[in-house]
Amino acid sequence: MVVESDLRHIGARRAATSTKRFLGKGPKFWRDALTGWAMALPWLIGFLVFTAGPMGLSFYYSFTFFNIPQPPRWMGLYNYQFLPTWVLFRKAVYNTLYYVALSQPLAIVGSLFLAVLMNQNIPGRAAFRTIYYLPSVLSGVATAMLWLWLLNPRSGIVNVALRSIGLPAPNWLFDEHWAKPALVLMRMWGLGAGAVIFLAGLQGIPEHLHEAAQIDGAGRWRRFWSITLPMLSPTVFFQLVTGFIGAFQMFAPVYVWTQVEAGSTGTVGAGPQNSLLMYALLLYQVAFGSGANMGRASAMAWMLFVFILALTIIQFRLAKFWVYYEAGPEGGV
Questions:
Q1: Which of 30, 129, 137, 220 has its CA 20 to 30 A from that of 309?
Q2: Gap between the Cα atoms of 101 and 52, Å rounded
Q3: Is the pLDDT at 302 greater than 90, yes or no?
């Protein structure tokens, strides 16, 4: 009891001393502090008005029925209970998971393969790097329109090339079985951005590790699996996390394709049998389409946020089993 009393007394005395020192700072300290807060104030106001504020409102709206011309009406958990039973919601979830599961592994492997090729010491290497990266600087709308022409069942270059070598030419965006693979194919065209990140990781691998392994008789494949991949694992982890986050938010290409379809056929949909109805597209249609319901759209947005957050946390938890950091996971020695 005496020890506890002494410890509490010491703690209170230290707290009082710290408070006295803080309040006893000179004018220069307070002037510098105010200057710092004044510099940060525009960002803080922007964050509160354009980020934190809308997030808080959307969380509240997710429990309401909210059609913009009318005030929100409280509905409790109805939106969260209704969405899993909605056929279109389940279809959008399936399409999105299908796209992510197919495109993400291909994007990782393809980007790494492309980076290894661009890392070779060959003539014109800089030109090849530029060419491979160029598709990544195009806007999503321009890319979608380009691939809409390329995948035209009759006159598209892809089908013309397939027919020329005797292979069947799919209907791509007009076939429910080929619409999502077409979307994956379009993503593969933009592997340059991921390849540049992998290229930076490859060039950060110490050359002496490869030289030592080569002296010990290790071949190219052995060096790749035992040196390159482990040293590149932080880059792979970064690509996995950011790639999953981006893939679950696929929107621009499917929106453009469905708008073109609606203009040419006079119908509103998301590809044949809603095969291109991605989660973000359905969210947009619920929020701004006919019978707009901002409350239900907000609930969809929060469900997606929680799912991506949980997936990212799982990836970080699993990273300690396969991601290798040369200086330790916390950046220390």
A1: 137
A2: 32
A3: yes
